[in-house]
Specification:
Number of helices: 2
Number of strands: 6
CATH class: Alpha Beta
CATH topology: Alpha-Beta Plaits
Structural class: alpha+beta
Helix content: 10-25%
Shape: elongated
Number of domains: 1
Radius of gyration: 16 Å
């Protein structure tokens, strides 16, 4: 378990249409994602799966979908991005930036607290 002086690390994963991939990555990196602590000073680090993923959804009556139509099942090619956020404040800023940059009304993302062994 991380010591009390070491900020908690979080992994952010999200799905995005390839046409919006770079805009979302730019937004999350500007908010502090992808920065590894330590002497290497690595920034803008992430893992991206671009080909092979297909998202699926059916917008409900109150939806205003970016892609597809209300009541119709929609499938769309999506990329998956995984990156590191160091500190809860950074993770929260990054998620807020992702939601602003992402084209979807409801952004599919996960934030997972990591352990440092």
């Amino acid at each position: 378990m991380a010591s009390s002086s070491t900020p908690t690390k979080y992994q952010l994963s999200f799905y995005v249409p390839p046409a919006h991939l770079e805009a979302c990555k730019k937004a999350i990196f500007a908010a502090g994602a992808g920065c590894y602590p330590g002497s290497g000073n690595y920034t803008e680090a992430c893992y991206t799966i671009v080909h092979g993923g297909v998202g699926q959804f059916r917008p409900g009556k109150g939806a205003n979908p970016h892609i597809g139509s209300v009541g119709e099942l929609e499938t769309v090619q999506e990329a998956r991005v995984e990156t590191l956020c160091v500190g809860e404040d950074v993770a929260r800023r990054v998620v807020a930036a992702l939601k602003q940059a992402h084209p979807y009304e409801e952004v599919a993302y996960q934030v997972v607290k990591m352990e440092d062994f």
